[in-house]
Amino acid sequence: MRPARAGRLSGPELILHGVSAAPGTTVGRAVVLDGTGANPSVTVPPAQRGEEGARARRGLEAAAAELEEIAKELRRDGRDDEADIVETGVLMAMDPGLISRVDTLIAELGWQAPEALREAADQAAAELALLQDPMLALRADDVRSVGRRAAACATGALKRATEGVLIAATLGPADVAELAQKATGIALAGGGVTAHAAIVARSLGLPMVVGLGAGALEIEDGEEVVVDGDRGILVRRPDAQRVSVARGKAENRRVARETAVARRLVPAQTRDGHRIRVLANASTVAELHEADQQGAEGVGLLRSELLFLEAPTWPSFKEQVDVLRPVLSRLAGRVATVRLFDFGGDKTPPFLRGARARGIDLLLESPAQLKTQLAAIVEAGGGTELRILVPMVTSSGQLRTVREMLGPVLGGQRAVLGAMIETPEAALRATEIASHADFLSIGTNDLTQLVLGFDREQSRTAPVTDIRVLRLMDATMRAAHVARIPVDVCGEAASDPKAMPILVGLGVDELSVAAARVGQVREWVRKIDFSAVEKESERLLHQAGHAGRQSI
Ligand code: PEP
Ligand code: MG
Hints:
The chain contains 21 helices and 16 strands. By secondary structure, it is α/β, with parallel strands linked by helices. It folds into two domains: about 15-250, Glucose Oxidase, domain 1 (3-Layer(bba) Sandwich), CATH 3.50.30; about 270-550, Alpha-Beta Barrel (TIM Barrel). The radius of gyration is 25 Å and the shape is globular. The termini are far apart. Mean pLDDT is about 85; it is low at about 1-10, about 35-40, about 455-460 and about 545-550. Bound molecules: phosphoenolpyruvate and magnesium ion. Magnesium ion (MG) binds near residues 422, 443, 445 and 446. Magnesium ion binds near residues 422, 443, 445 and 446.
């Protein structure tokens, strides 16, 4: 039963807390894809159950046909990897196991076709989720979305307008590909920040909050809601001020994107002529597409581990080439920075459960796998200005070992090797590391977390202006410049309006930011004055610590 609700337009604001999956704020009418399940308790009479079963099958066939069509469109746009994912939905819709569950619910219990389709998909999904395998958990979302689509097809309901904020329990990749173009925001009761839906939302610049709990499914279709993807909240019955702030932010974002696209060829150069290279953090074709639209000069961080978070075992050479090539082939002649697997911590695939190490330490425990990855990156990255980035570096020895392994696989190709500076140890050893690296990349997400003791989510918006973090970044940038190698920042701070000018003032050469932020960051660069931000960064370094740049 759907619980009683306060009226749509009355009552105080109700704030639901979740997790930010894509930044930005939006206000809009809710488009509810999953309700709490207020199914009419109608039992189909036995004589009509045969026809009801046939209606359910037609629903599944229609859903499969729709998914095939979506996959075709994705292929036409060159988004083959997303098309592959959507096509697995076609197989799910034809799965005999699913069909037999639907038949049982209808024939034995007299369920109506749409409810039987949803329930059967939910049951199948719940079983997958029980296996506690993150890969299958993602598939569980996909099965649910196939059930929902088939139910809508069986109902024969006209496709609803999807302009607005999508509300659902979870979203499958096909839903996102199809609906996200018209949606202004996404809010999910479940879901995770690394799910496909979240990746696509980020790349398209759609604010998204996940993990809101069952309360999100009590929202009524058409109800006005605010999705605040920066703070990870959804607000029902938003007051006038919140609505106006959200409208303002959404409008600013829209205008900023249009400006960014229009000015994609204007160089990112400060008012006094200091050039900054703005690159994208992109691991999928969808993200790269958006980054290109906004004028990214290449990719500064391809998080290779995100592509294999659900892998049941170390991915083979071929599997890696197959996943990397669609992205890297679009970067011919441009910077393509591929980071080695940063497995461990919150990015642990099933086959590495229990491993204690992270990043390069974990890879060095499996040298054969490291060699395989190096070879796959070199193979897939042919034709790009390839850069290989080593995660969670703590010493120059790790870099030397990787370089030795890289030599034989290069086969005459050029590739440069860089170190992530994202641990305090690495920053303290920046001079030594810089002397063995071709570039440095500061990961402010981990650095702030490790230095300030914040958790990962907090650290995404943590103040890199904290003197302890500032000094470590300053030491890193100085070390890079003494070694005459470029230094970039690829953590969230690179696209934070307060932190970004400070980074430029400290001497960063490149900023690598989420695809949807590229244009905005390029615009900010054009608005600042290098000599002014240099002075400001210097002031911050001295003011807070008195001891100046030398003592870290
Ligand atoms: C970082 O730590 O800032 C970074 C860019 O790496 P990730 O967010 O993938 O850990
Ligand atoms: Mg990191």
